[in-house]
Amino acid sequence: MFSPDKHKILLHWYRTTSWWLLPFTALSYGLPNHEPISKFIHASTVTLYGYHSYVSTSCVITDYMKRPLLGDLLRVANAKFHLLGTIGFLKLILERKNIIDK
Fold this sequence. Notes:
The chain has helices spanning 8-17, 21-30, 38-64, 68-95. The chain has a single domain (4-95), classed as 3 helical TM bundles of succinate and fumarate reductases, CATH 1.20.1300. The protein is mainly α and 102 residues long.
């Protein structure tokens, strides 16, 4: 769980969903906020970026952190911070009527 770069299924999803990042970002940027589908697109975009950032950071920890205890501590912190950030953005998106107040 804390080492997604060592699991084939999680890496498969990482590579598969990387093709979705740019289209979802463009849709998220281009859709008006009052559209009912916009919350789904925004939430999907945030989830994709959160997952990709989590896996990428885990790969960096694996490549550069050679002390096992510190590496384990950083992996737990990585998972907690990415989960906290993603849930925070999702809560912001799903609770607001308009995503961006003008």
